[in-house]
Amino acid sequence: MAEMVRKSSVDEIVNHWVLAGSCILLALSGFAFLFHLDGVAGVFGGYNVMKDVHNWLGVIFALSLLYSMRHYLKDAFEYDADDLQWFKVAGGYLSHKVKVPPMGKYNPGQKLYYLAIVAAGIAITASGLGMWLMKDDATVLMYSHLIHNLAFVIFAIAVPVHIYLGTLANPGTFKLMVSGTLPLEEAKRRYPKWMKAAGRM
Amino acid sequence: MANESNSRKAILVTPEICIGCRACQVACKSWNQLPASKTKNNGTYQNPPDLESNTFNIIRFAEVPSKETPVRWLFVSRRCMHCEDAGCVKICPSGALYKTAEGAVAYDRDKCIGCKLCSTGCPFDVPRYDKEGKVSKCHLCFDRIAANMTPSCVKTCPTGALKYGDRAELIAEAKKTGYTTIYGENDLKGLGSVYAFKEEPKLYGLKENPALPSSVAFWHSYLKPLSWIGLGGVVAAAAIHYLAIGPHKEEKEEV
Question: Do A136 and B250 touch (CB under 8 A)?
Fold first, then answer.
């Protein structure tokens, strides 16, 4: 059996799926509120129940996002010349002929995605709490509603990109959020700088 | 839409012939089984001071300066304006607020989730919330008008200061009678509570150029569609990318 490298810890994987699950349910109920999707609301048990479920899922999502910072926040703020070159070749996603520079544990697209989710997550949480707990203040309610929807647009665009890139667009990536491990040889090819830093090559 | 606007009903308020008897307030409470509120005399007949969860309409008593008499006393019915372009209906996330075939803005109390967003969508500060936090306001007696009856306030009005009927006819009639200013004829695509004046509506304390709050209009016109266009766009782009360019390939296949 090939030697395996662990890229995601069990902690990360559980954290990721709590985030993903709550995010998808939040988006689904959010769309149901936006467009009066009675069928979806019915599955949640009606709009009144869906509101409570949405609010508390929001709490779970926010706490999970906060917790995820210990895994990713430091890396997400560190960029080097290879990262700049990565953007110049669009990560190799627009052509298979370009040469993609060697990457560390995360590519800059992933790092920026994480920062976008953190920023939008803070905005959507704060505004959600505003609508939930401060609805008697008309100004807070109005701006919270606006910010909540602005942040939601970011999620509605960024999350499906993330899902596509983590599954179909990059075969073999999805297992990193299931088992969390990959063969050493594959890790050396995909994340040479990370492997070098870890003393594995 | 043409048929809808032809069938659109309205309440025409003519403050000039209102005598301030407030029978409309009583009739409203009676039909809708709303309890009275205990209030304090604060030097005006306007009572309760403003709309409440158990008070769907009030007569505002306005005192304005006058040349002929020491003061002019104006009586103006205040209630839900039943906007055609209703901000409350737009922003309501549960579909509790809705428009009836007659053009009334009614609500299903059971569907209300108590989020209070309708208050941010309303240009006239109308929605109120009961003890359970559910929306409460004038619904143009949607139950009565659906059965071809007039709203209870109109039914009881002794002078014709409140009239109910086909919106277009009421407005035409008011103009023919000599009322030069119709408040709400075109505002918010036409109000369902229209007011006939010979003077400036401002004198009677009505809001000039009422419009949806700009944040609500922006949200409805741009943000709301952008959420599903964004999602759909990404899904479509991903499908095109997968087919046209294809997934990432390892540089050294089959090691």
Answer: no
Chain B residues lying within 8 Å of A186, measured CB to CB: 250
Confidence of residue A96 (pLDDT cuts 50, 70, 90): confident
The pLDDT, as a whole number, for residue B5 is: 56
Number of domains forming the structure of chain B: 2
- What is chain B's mean pLDDT, rounded? 93
Chain B residues lying within 8 Å of A95, measured CB to CB: 245
B2 inside domain: no
Q: What is the pLDDT of residue B6?
A: 66
Q: Exposed, middle or buried, B49 (CB in 10 Å: 0-12/13-18/19+)?
A: middle
From A31, A92, A157, residue closest to B234, measured CB to CB? A157
Q: What is the CATH number of the domain that holds B85?
A: 3.30.70.20
Does residue B1 lie within any of the structural domains? Answer: no
Closest residue on chain A to B112 (Cα): A48
pLDDT, tens only, B84-129: 999 999 999 999 999 999 999 999 999 999 999 999 999 999 999 9
Q: Distance (Å, rounded) from C-alpha B5 to C-alpha A132?
A: 37
Name every chain B residue with its beta carbon within 8 A of the beta carbon of A53.
none
Taking residues A182-197, report their average pLDDT.
92
Residue A107 inside a domain? The answer is: yes
Q: Are residues B42 and B114 in the same domain?
A: yes
Confidence (pTM) = 0.91
A1 lies in some domain: no
Nearest by CB to B250, which of A31, A149, A189? A189
Nearest CA in chain B to A185: B255
Please tell me which of the candidates B120, B248, B250 has its beta carbon nearest to residue A141: B120
Q: Say how far apart CA A182 and CA A8 lie, in whole Å.
A: 10
Same domain, B50 and B155: yes
Residues A57/A92, Cβ–Cβ less than 8 Å: no
Put simply, the chain B residues between 131 and 190 with a CB less than 8 A from any chain A CB are: none
**Distant-in-sequence, close-in-space partners of B14: CB < 8 Å, separation ≥ 6:** B160, B161, B163, B174, B179, B195, B196
Does A4 fall in a domain? no
Instruction: Give residue B105's domain range.
Output: 9-204
